[in-house]
Design goal:
By secondary structure, the protein is mainly alpha-helical. It contains 13 helices and 2 strands. Strand 1 and strand 2 form a beta hairpin.
Length: 302
């Protein structure tokens, strides 16, 4: 009986101190307001894991464009305003992102997992330089090529009713892959099926409410979630590294086909200039992860 009472008192004290600390966060430390959270869980029970962005948008209607929520024990500030995001991006706190296991697992060495401001700025500088090159070279040609292909597919239906969703999704994917890797796909391509499979697994894993992010001990023992994540990462990395190696073998100076060529060119220039700082983030793996993060993190199946 005494043990039960003590446990009850300890639990009650924990809850009281939890909400005292939450009050201090809002009223003393002036952290942006947000919905009340629960001990251990935070606000995750208020979020739909399949549409977190919609839940956060709904919350912003009550708590403003800048508010905070808790993922488990960690409080995170949410920015839901373009001007605020832009000013934060150019400020000193852009790398102060919450540490999420699955995000680091899939995007390691990429700009999204940078913890140092200087390294993030270097990533940004290189990627801006890359986009300037691609927009001056083959971007318009690639868009024109895909538009013609889409029109041909529409014409093939011979004025019969059809759902354009699959064709438009494929066209969008082809534009991205053509710009990034110089590749295009058809609906029955096996490689396309692999892309959708690993992207779906990664997309389901990179969320704060995934079990491996909520329960850190799962990260260190064999389980179905870790197994599927490792399999998806291996499949993605193998495919992307094959793209890179093919480009490296066929690269010709003065002929820029896509973003991989742009970054190979920048890498060669850094080697010639002895720019060791830039070369640290221009390894083949850095290159493929940064391109994938920018273009393909939200590719979804038809």
């Amino acid at each position: 009986m005494l043990v039960t009472i003590l446990m009850f008192l300890i639990l009650a004290l924990y809850i009281v101190f939890y909400y005292i600390n939450e009050w201090k966060e809002f009223c003393v430390w002036k952290i942006p307001q947000g919905p009340p959270s629960l001990p251990l869980f935070g606000n995750i029970l208020q979020l739909d894991s399949s549409a977190i962005h919609l839940c956060l948008t709904k919350m912003s209607e009550s708590y403003g464009k800048v508010f905070s929520i808790k993922f488990g024990k960690e409080r995170v500030i949410i920015l839901n305003d373009a001007k605020v995001i832009k000013s934060t991006y150019n400020g000193p706190h852009v790398t102060w992102r919450p540490k999420i296991f699955s995000l680091d697992f899939f995007l390691e060495k990429g700009f999204m997992t940078c913890r140092e401001q200087h390294e993030f700025n270097l990533h940004t500088k290189i990627m801006r330089q890359t986009f300037k090159v691609i927009t001056r070279t083959s971007l318009c040609e690639k868009l024109h090529e895909e538009a013609l292909s889409l029109m041909e597919r529409f014409n093939s239906y011979q004025q019969m009713p059809f759902d354009p969703k699959e064709d438009l999704s494929l066209a969008s994917l082809n534009i991205l892959h053509n710009i990034a890797f110089g590749k295009r796909y058809h609906k029955d391509d096996e490689e396309l099926r692999q892309i959708f499979q690993y992207t779906e697994t990664i997309g389901n894993s990179i969320t704060p409410v995934h079990p491996v992010n909520l329960l850190p001990w799962l990260q260190n023992i064999p389980n179905p979630w870790i197994h599927s994540m490792m399999k998806a990462k291996e499949c993605r990395d193998t495919l992307l590294m094959n793209f890179y190696n093919e480009h490296k073998k066929t690269f010709q100076d003065g002929q820029i086909r896509d973003l991989v060529d742009c970054l190979i060119k920048i890498t060669n220039e850094a080697e010639s200039n002895g720019d060791n700082e830039a070369l640290k983030i221009l390894t083949p793996y850095h290159i493929i992860i940064n391109i994938w993060t920018i273009f393909f993190a939200e590719v979804t199946q038809f």
